[in-house]
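Researcher: Sequence recovery benchmark, item below. Answer with residues only.
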């Protein structure tokens, strides 16, 4: 009689029933907090500042189009994100290392053969979700080496994240984070 019952079921039916049972088991363990979901992995929400290094920008105008205390639109991995505040902009002309005659010393001077070539470091700020893996902005982990595009009214520069700092939380932010962590319980 048992063999007749199994003959009625097809392989597809057995796979579907097994999948449903597995989904119920995973749901039970998630409900009982044995398994962490994405919302439970967020340890805090904090302000971050990160630097974007833009190498080899050719500018023939008199000024750098990026300015501190303004906003710039960013794309992370070619996905549009949002406008961020620019904290600082440092632009340096390309340099060249020259040996000093009759000495073992060298000197660094601006490269006159590339007079309009600049390396730019832009410091940006945003609010990020802090996880055990790092800061998350717009669904992307912000880490050194991440490609970012800065775009404004009259520029579009491609760069990479070269530094990241999590700013200390204020008392108000600590209070907010403690309230939101109590909501997950």
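Model:
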């Amino acid at each position: 009689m048992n063999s007749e019952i199994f003959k009625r079921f097809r392989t597809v039916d057995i796979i579907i029933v097994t999948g449903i049972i597995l989904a119920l088991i995973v749901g039970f363990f998630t409900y009982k907090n044995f398994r962490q979901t994405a919302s439970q992995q967020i340890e805090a929400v904090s302000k971050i500042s990160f630097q974007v290094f833009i190498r080899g920008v050719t500018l023939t105008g008199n000024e750098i189009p990026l300015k501190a205390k303004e906003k710039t639109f960013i794309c992370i991995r070619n996905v549009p994100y949002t406008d961020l505040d620019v904290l600082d902009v440092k632009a340096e002309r390309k340099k060249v290392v020259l040996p000093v005659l009759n000495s073992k010393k060298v000197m660094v001077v601006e490269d006159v053969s590339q007079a309009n070539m600049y390396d730019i470091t832009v410091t940006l700020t945003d609010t990020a979700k802090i996880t055990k893996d790092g800061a998350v902005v717009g669904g992307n982990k912000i880490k050194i080496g991440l490609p970012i595009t800065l775009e404004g009214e009259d520029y579009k520069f491609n760069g990479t994240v070269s530094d990241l700092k999590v700013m200390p939380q204020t008392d108000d932010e600590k209070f907010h984070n403690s309230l939101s962590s109590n909501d997950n319980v």
